[in-house]
Structure formats: C-alpha cells, structure tokens
Amino acid sequence: MSLRLSTVILPVRRWHAGGREQWVRAEELGFHTAYTYDHLAWRTFRDGPWFGAVPTLTAAAAATERMRLGTLVTSPNFRHPVTLAKELISLDDISGGRITLGIGAGGNGFDATTLLKEGEEPWTPRERADRFGEFVPLLDRLLTEDSVTYEGTFYSATEARDIPGCVQRPRLPFAVAATGPRGLRLAARHGQAWVTTGDPKLFETGTPEQSREAIRGQIEKLGKACADIGRDAAELDKILLTGFTPDRNRPLESLDAFVDFAGRHAELGFTEIVVHAPIPDSDFAADQGVFERIATEALAQLG
User: Fold this and answer.
1) How far apart are CA 283 and CA 19, in angstroms?
2) Phi, psi of 135, rounded to the nearest 5 degrees
3) Is residue 156 a contact partner of residue 150, using CB atoms and an 8 Å limit?
4) How confident is the model at residue 303 (pLDDT cuts 50, 70, 90)?
5) In angstroms, rounded to a whole number, what is the distance separating the alpha carbons of residues 158 and 181?
6) What is d(CA 54, CA 276) in angstroms, rounded to the nearest whole number?
C-alpha cells in the first residue's frame, strides 16, 4: 500500500469563525482524511471552546466533496453503541460514504469523569477494556444488521433498527486504536485499520529510536493477533497519529524533518501518517506554511 497523509482538525473554532475554512482547506491541500477528536473536553483545551465531533463532521461533510472524514477516536467513555450507530449511519449517508470510525477504549481524561456521580470512581483500565470488548462487536452488528437484539454485561439493545444501513458496505470502516492484547484482537477481528500513537511510556524520556522499536513490537503483536484468526495483517491499514512520540512536534518544523520522520515510519509498515493542523499557542503550534508544504510536497519526496 502507498503511504497516505491525513490530518486532525481539533474542534476548537466556531464554524463561522474559521472552522469551516479549515476543513475546506484540508481538502484543497489534498489530505486523504481529515479527522477530529471525539471528546467532551480535552487536556489543555478544557477551559476553551470545544465542539462536538458528530455535528462538526456533519458540517464538514456538507462543506467538502472528496476527502474522507472521521474520528480519532471515539470511545465508550460517553458513547452507547445503539445511539452511536444511528448517528454514524446518518453521517455516512450525508457524506456520501466518506466516514471512517476511529475507535478506542478511552482513557482517564474528562470523558471518563464528566458523567460520574459525586464520589463515583472512574473505570479502571481493565473495566474500560471489558466495555470496549463488548462495544465493538455490538457496534459492528448494529451497522450491518437491520434489527439487533442483544443483552450483554454493559450494553443492551432491543430490536434496534438501523435501516437503511451505511452507504459503505457492509459498513463504514473501523480504525481500531489498540496496543494491548485484547484491543489488538479486536482490531484483527473487526478493524479495517489499526491506529497507534506509539508507546506513551516513552513520550517524556524515550528517544525516537526507542519509540520506533516499541512500535515495531506493536506491529508484530498485531500480526500475531491476525494470524491467530487466520487473517493477513497486510489487509489492515496501519495509521500513526503523530505528536505523541518522543519526536513530539519536531516533524512539523520543516519539510525535510517530516519526510525523514514519515520515511522511517513507512519502513515499519505504516500506510497512513496523521498530523495535527496547527493551533497557535498550544502543544500543536506549528508554522502554517510548513504544514501546507508538507501536505502538498511530502508524499512526492517519499516516493
């Protein structure tokens, strides 16, 4: 598979005050996919503007024509598979079949605590993995079957109707974010793509070389998870969401820096590299001109 370049547009701008223009510009620049985060609030952006992912993607679908759109990532932290399936089918229809669902188990951020009662503890990593293990297969069924009845440990559905289903058949693609064994098994069984941000333990003190070696190990484990069910791991796109490895934002400092970074990760087997659209005065600050040069020139240099 040839390498693709995609972007993440964080939902921090009002639609009529720069938001729409970002999505339109991303298509003009030739990005394969423009994703957004699906959170209630996120990290240092908690006390500022932050808009909902599904309405934002719906507006982006109306404002663009060719570019794929998606989430990186949606999680069970505040989503239910029955209502999410209905929104996804609608979004896939409005976009003309251009939606990819990035999906993960979720973390300990604001999504994990906003809906809790006072004194209630957030889910442990194991509890999140348990829910994710039920969430993904049920969502798969909801997006491919006209009517679903299900009684699980965490989720239920009684004759949940999702007609006419997705424009994309048999359903829109899942890009499963996972590094642990249970998540990798879900990616192998249900994913059309696999997503990683690298090894978070290396973010603060690791080196780029250590990061690439850790990612190589993740890819090997994904391969084993696929082999265990008789699937060829080459069938899955492999997506790297940048900005969370020890390289941090350095790949966006120049075109040459990005080409070097992307080339080293393409050698590991990645088929898609995702960069954040610049946000001034944030962890994702970058020169817009460099960002646009990367979008329009990097792939030609990578061959």
Assistant:
1) 19
2) -65, -50
3) yes
4) confident
5) 31
6) 19
Contact 297, 264 (CB under 8 A): no
- Is the pLDDT reported for residue 1 higher than 80? no
pLDDT in tens, 225-242: 999 999 999 999 999 999
What is the DSSP secondary-structure string of the chain? ---EEEEE--S-S-IIIIIHHHHHHHHHTT-SEEEE---SS-GGGTTS----HHHHHHHHHHH-SSSEEEEEEE-TTT--HHHHHHHHHHHHHHHTS-EEEEE----SSGGGTTTPPTTPPPPPHHHHHHHHHHHHHHHHHHHH-SEEEEE-SS-EEEEEE--S--SSSS-PPEEEE--SHHHHHHHHHH-SEEEE---GGGTTT--HHHHHHHHHHHHHHHHHHHHHTT--GGGSEEEEE-SSSTTTTGGGS-HHHHHHHHHHHHTTT-SEEEEEPP-TTSTT---HHHHHHHHHHHHHHH-
Nearest-angstrom CA–CA distance, 173 and 35:
14
pLDDT in tens, 238-277: 999 999 999 999 999 999 999 999 999 999 999 999 999 9
User: Which phi and psi angles does 15 have, rounded to 5°?
Assistant: -60, -40
Instruction: Give the position of tokens 């300990």.
Output: 108
pTM (predicted TM-score): 0.97
Distance CA 113, CA 149 (A): 29
